[in-house]
Amino acid sequence: MVTPVKKILIRAPNWIGDAVMAIPTLSAIRTGFKEATITLLAKAAVLSLFEHHPTIDTLLAYESPGDHSGPIGILRLSRRLRKESFDLAILLPNSFESALIVALARIPKRVGYATDGRRWLLTDHAIKPNGHQQDVYLGLLRLLRQPAPPSQPYLIATADERQAARKWLAPFGVLPSDSCIGVQAGAAYGSAKRWDARRFAETVDALVAEQPAHVLLLGSANECGVAEEVRRHMRHPAIQLAGKTTLRQMVALISQCRFFLSNDSGPMHIASALGVPLAAIFGPTSPMVTSPGKRQGRVVSHPVECAPCTYRDCPIDHRCMTSVSVARVLEVANRELQTDLKTAVFFDRDGTLNEEVGYLDTVTCLTLTPNAAEAIRRLNQEGILVIIVTNQSGVARGFFTEGFVSQVHHRLAHLLAMEGAHIDGVYYCPHHPNQQCRCRKPATGMIEQAVRDYPIDYARSYVVGDRLTDTTLARQGAKGILVRTGYGNNALQEIVASSQNPHYVADDLSAAVTWILRDRETVLAKTDKTLEEIR
Question: Catalytic residue at 116?
Answer without folding.
Answer: no
